[in-house]
Design brief:
Blueprint (H helix, E strand, L loop, with lengths): L8 E6 L3 E7 L3 E6 L2 H14 L3 E5 L5 H10 L4 E4 L1 H10 L7 H15 L9 H29 L3 H31 L1 H11 L6 H10 L8 H8 L7 E2 L2 E2 L9 H17 L1 H12 L4 H22 L9
Parallel strand pairs: 1-4, 4-5
Antiparallel strand pairs: 1-2, 2-3, 6-7
Helix pairs in contact: 5-6, 5-8, 6-7, 7-8, 8-10, 10-11, 10-12, 11-12
């Protein structure tokens, strides 16, 4: 007699100090502290349950520790955008919001939507990601301080701002050196960095950001990588109405760097430049042209890394 296999889905709500776990369909719950003991307790319990899928919200990096531990034990983990979970909760009538409710919503989301469990970043990639993020933060602070310097009237204020800007420049330079050293220490990263920087318009910052913030590049097809980055056109149709396509969502930090690389590529990368001119002659608006060129440049990057082939203007 065949036994019916009951699929089990788990939602984990992560906060700074606690973990709330909900296991469907038995609606088993677990509330533990977010420390070594709590992680061991959750991991051991879920190993016994052997769930079909575990869903965790991205929580500003707090989720990385538990997600890494679970994935390291061979459990299927999907880290999702909090907006997806909240929209799902509203659609199912769950208007209340507590840690326990959020865990239950995530378990229901796992059962109904079944997001893909992607491989998590390894420790080296997470470290590279943190360094790239820190560099971006320092640059943003430097921009703010430079703007303040332009309006500072008193000499003491100007002196303080100049001193801080010099310190920021030094910190950014040190980070750039550390990033370059990390890349050269890894044969895999160095090879990928060399491939990406061989593309006209792609510089050090773009290559670093793609490797740190989008480690999936080179493993997905062109449609998947475009959707992941947020440069895939989304339809807006209803009945006979055909609305304008638009891009939305994805990884904003990757898209911002890709935008700047594309602006440069339109000037100095012949295939991208020709593609942009063709779209302009067809009457496409400037924003449509730049997004289409971003998608083309991203597709080229993805294909080169997937096939481990250097830049070739004829095949691009």
């Amino acid at each position: 007699m065949n036994e019916t296999i009951v699929e089990k889905f788990v939602g984990i709500d992560v906060s700074k100090s606690t973990l709330d776990v909900c296991i469907e369909p038995a609606v088993q719950t677990l509330h533990v502290s977010y420390d070594e003991a709590g992680i061991r307790q959750v991991t051991g319990r879920l190993k016994e349950v052997n769930p079909t899928l575990i869903v965790i919200e991205a929580t500003g990096g707090l989720e990385v520790r538990i997600a890494t531990e679970l994935a390291g034990k061979g459990l299927p983990v999907a880290v999702i955008n909090p907006r997806q979970a909240r929209d799902f909760a509203k659609a199912t009538g769950r208007l209340a919001k507590t840690d326990q409710v959020d865990a239950a919503v995530l378990a229901e989301f796992a059962k109904a939507i079944r997001p893909q469990a992607r491989p998590l970043k390894d420790a080296d990639t997470r470290a590279l990601d943190d360094m790239v993020s820190r560099r971006r933060q320092l640059i943003d602070i430097r921009v703010q301080e430079t703007l303040r310097l332009g309006t500072a009237a008193s000499k003491p204020m100007q002196k303080s701002l100049n001193k801080h800007i010099v310190w920021l420049d030094k910190q950014i330079a040190e980070l750039d050196g550390d990033l370059a050293e990390r890349l050269h220490e890894s044969d895999v990263w160095r090879a990928k960095d060399d491939l990406l920087r061989g593309i006209p318009g792609v510089g050090q910052v773009t290559a670093l950001t793609m490797l740190a913030k989008c480690p999936e590049i080179g493993t997905l097809n062109r449609r998947e990588i475009a959707a992941l980055t947020g440069v895939a056109p989304l339809a807006n149709d209803s009945g006979k109405h055909r609305g304008k396509r638009f891009v939305w969502g994805g990884r904003a930090d990757v898209r911002a760097v890709l935008y700047m690389a594309t602006v440069t590529a339109i000037r100095c990368n012949d295939p991208i430049k020709a593609f942009a001119e063709r779209l302009k002659k067809a009457g496409k608006p400037p924003k449509v042209v730049i997004v289409a060129c971003m998608r083309k440049l991203l597709t080229i990057m993805n294909s080169m890394l997937k096939n481990n082939t250097p830049w070739n203007q004829k095949t691009a």
